[in-house]
Amino acid sequence: MAVSSLFSVLFLLLIISLFSTALTSIHGLNDHSSIQQVVSFDGHDDLLMSAYNQFSAFKEKYNKTYLTQEEDDYRFAGRAVARPSPPSGPPLPTAIHGVTEFSNLAPSEFRTQYLRFDGQIQLPKHLKTAPILPTNNNWRDDGAVTGVKHQGQCNACWAFVSIATLETAYFLATNQLVDMSEQQLLDCSDECTDDKRICNLGCNGGNHVLAYRYMLKVGGIQATKDYPYTGINGSCKFNNNKIVASIYEFNDIVANEDQYAANLVEYGTVAVTFNSDMLQTYTGGIACPPCSGALNHEVTLVGYGCDRHRICKNSFGTNFEKNGYYRLCKGRLTCGENPVATFPFSA
């Protein structure tokens, strides 16, 4: 058998296993073993065509294009097809994992292109006592949250949570919901900590606390319509005559999820961090990822459900899970290395 034909058949059995796993929506990743390498055998050209058709459907659904035929072949060949990774501990009760928009990326590529939260910045902790919380709370129900956006292949989650929390804070102050500019932060916020250990670097990562400091320094943020998103680093085009919203203070919350909920109910949406290593293959349900590892992604906490699961606005577009939102079981936002939760006040 020719080398290329042998490689194609090897990939065939791998891709069929992956797609059948996704299409049957396995709950909880009940098989805790990784996908195994398969031994090839002759006579499967019909199955190979089926696998190629599924790959073509994947590209069409997620608008995937590649610059060269070699890149297309590489993605089809499965070397960079994401595989659901087994969690540590017991199976996840309701999370569903399978083929997603990011399934053509190796895990290392996914982390490089989409996940980067640069460190914790120490702030005074704000304590809001709320011994009795509502059964559930969701700021979307109050019209206080703009639509889900897509950061593209730009490590800009830090900018998206900074803007999302400001949008809600501004709504609570003025009763006006305005779509504000993440691109301004990418192009203009180059704030650093005093020791220069953590800096905002546009699409190369950043920190929402530094973004809040930038807003305080320059006076505010423009609307998206005046400073639209491009998803690449550009020169700063900030016009202070077009500022639509500003902040006058921001607070960090002590790492306790009851405190997160209390501040959420009282003050609005909250920028939070968590370990998102399993995010690449997540397609639905309430996720309970391993409570360990580095924090590498930021999302906006907008509410919680009656069973106290956390409802988080992501920045991967509306194709991601439930209209762009990620649902986490209670306790996963306050574990890992130095969890961070912050919110601004606007005027």
TrEMBL record:
<dbReference type="InterPro" id="IPR000668">
    <property type="entry name" value="Peptidase_C1A_C"/>
</dbReference>
<feature type="signal peptide">
    <location>
        <begin position="1"/>
        <end position="22"/>
    </location>
</feature>
<feature type="domain" description="Peptidase C1A papain C-terminal">
    <location>
        <begin position="133"/>
        <end position="345"/>
    </location>
</feature>
<dbReference type="InterPro" id="IPR039417">
    <property type="entry name" value="Peptidase_C1A_papain-like"/>
</dbReference>
<dbReference type="InterPro" id="IPR025660">
    <property type="entry name" value="Pept_his_AS"/>
</dbReference>
<keyword id="KW-1015">Disulfide bond</keyword>
<keyword id="KW-0378">Hydrolase</keyword>
<keyword id="KW-0732">Signal</keyword>
<dbReference type="InterPro" id="IPR013128">
    <property type="entry name" value="Peptidase_C1A"/>
</dbReference>
<keyword id="KW-0788">Thiol protease</keyword>
<dbReference type="InterPro" id="IPR038765">
    <property type="entry name" value="Papain-like_cys_pep_sf"/>
</dbReference>
<dbReference type="Pfam" id="PF00112">
    <property type="entry name" value="Peptidase_C1"/>
</dbReference>
<comment type="similarity">
    <text>Belongs to the peptidase C1 family.</text>
</comment>
<protein>
    <recommendedName>
        <fullName>Peptidase C1A papain C-terminal domain-containing protein</fullName>
    </recommendedName>
</protein>
<keyword id="KW-0645">Protease</keyword>
